[in-house]
């Protein structure tokens, strides 16, 4: 299924140019992918194609089935952010296979790509509120996308229902909405990674992220991503982001990233974005290349895009 096209401004490069960029990126990604594990057998994400030994956390249980994580829909009334994001009727036209949402602009809703490990961000904030001593575990879950660390954070919040409510409360404080799963949707994968969180809602959350109480350590970790940080938003200097990736029901890879990209070097201010890609050929490498092409497009437009609320 091809993802819906996102938002609207004239594309500055031709489709032919974009395809050339993606082709070049695929060659570069393919050169580093040999010998690396990219299958997702430990829950959330596959390892990056440029992963080091310490980055291979997400494939550490190859050979035997992973234990699914339980995860729930928030029941608390959404909290209105202190500084709501103003939204225009302008859309951002991108002539690529990625779906892009920018906070403050009219954009796409649902995507077929699950949130995967991007859900670790609100979970980490909730866990730190519950236990400030969880800092090292948060760093592992965010910087290395360590699934065992994420499960520890989730479990620290109580029952699956309690964990989902705490996570949903954080999402609401970020001016966003999501359905946080309490039960496994797919065998072998965590429930929270299969939650429903639209791209536009996730971009809104990114827009208010730095204003959420207790988010500072998580934001810092998002600025130092190692596993999954070499493509997409990770190619933009100063980006604060988290990615998530994994196979769909048909085995084809889907990749998501969301976060903040600097308006311009040294100028201060950010643009809040969320991106999703369904791999054109089913491979993780192709999804990486498409996401990097989308990031390059955003980098070229950043000066004209709305600033994040925080």
From TrEMBL:
<feature type="signal peptide">
    <location>
        <begin position="1"/>
        <end position="33"/>
    </location>
</feature>
<dbReference type="InterPro" id="IPR012338">
    <property type="entry name" value="Beta-lactam/transpept-like"/>
</dbReference>
<feature type="region of interest" description="Disordered">
    <location>
        <begin position="37"/>
        <end position="90"/>
    </location>
</feature>
<keyword id="KW-0732">Signal</keyword>
<feature type="compositionally biased region" description="Basic and acidic residues">
    <location>
        <begin position="81"/>
        <end position="90"/>
    </location>
</feature>
<protein>
    <recommendedName>
        <fullName>Secreted protein</fullName>
    </recommendedName>
</protein>
